[in-house]
Amino acid sequence: MSLDFDKLSLLRAIESSGERNSMARKRYQKGQLWLEQDGWHGRWREDVIVNGVRRRPRRHGIIGSLKDYPTKRLAQRALDAHIAHVNKISYRPMPTAKFADFAQNWESKVLSQYGESTAINYRTHIWKHLVPFFGEYSMKDLNPEMIQQFVSTSVVSPKTTKNICITLQSMWTTARAWGYVAHDLMEGVVLPEVKRVQRFFLSQREIQLILARAQEPHRTWYGLAAETGLRAGELCGLTVDDIDIERGMLQVRQSAWRGKLGDPKTDDSIRVVELSPQACAHLKAFLKSWHPNERRLLFATCNGTPWDQNLLLKRRFRPLLRSLGIQVPRGNGFHAFRHANATLMSSFGASQKLRQQRLGHADGSPVTETIYTHVISEDGKRIAAQLGKAVWGVLDPSWTLKENGSGVESPKPLYLN
Question: Is this model's pTM higher than 0.90 or not?
Fold first, then answer.
């Protein structure tokens, strides 16, 4: 008798101390099952934690149609499978939150660790598309059917819709790790087909026309973009200390986005790129008229901040292309230089590894080893010399196109998967 009293006292003590808030009830449940016009319905209870307090709300769901489960016994089996996780001995109450609340929490704790350019896109996806659609739903209630409805009613392009779902998948991975959900949200979801995009690259002749018409300091920026294949943000983040004219190379250590400096896109983006003799000669002359700034940026505004690639594209580059009669498909910008660089290297017979190194793509080697090996690469020097001849070599010191400097094929669209 005293033993039973001790057990009862212990249970009461645990309950009053709040320890049971972290544990699920041990009672096995079969749920409730009934048939309506649209099919079999089920109801059960789940343990959740709301603001640190355990609650046991009722859950409701459609188990299946009468065609799927002709008898109540079959429908009960389906319900048993549906609530099996609740009856597991290892089951514990999970935290719960509305999607909008979780999105705010995820933004402050996870999205803050992303690069600025990536974070801006994710925030747009979350607050412009995901929260208006899913915001008032509990995280536990989201399911693949709701995601499919979101996809089918999306008014943005297929590519944007797919990117939004990628953002949602990133959030869901965190939600599973934090214990908010346990199911796969994207299982069976059919995403829209993204058609091949027409990627434009500048021809050698067009690069020559651009450099002949452009004025400094933009001419140097365009020339380096064509020869090195650097991303626009990497060019805007270059400093004079990153350039070694004597050794004929430049180093990519940082990137700029909307006037702010940050880390390059990936670890493989931190690299050394060989420069041609033509580029070195041009940079040597360019640095004589360079205006010093606090951060020693090669291209800086009058306030000493990095160039904004979007403003450069809108205010300088696109008007220049229009004046030259160069038609660029919508959605293409400075990446046309990068594609041109990759195309030229391929035509010169550059190996895939060398192209990956110069463009800052992953090549399977540690970054440090890649950089030091790359500095003394004879292949890199040869390709740089050929790029220099293709980009700068057809221009005389007065930056006037030679009459025999043409003879290059007209631009062709490049289709990429």
Answer: no
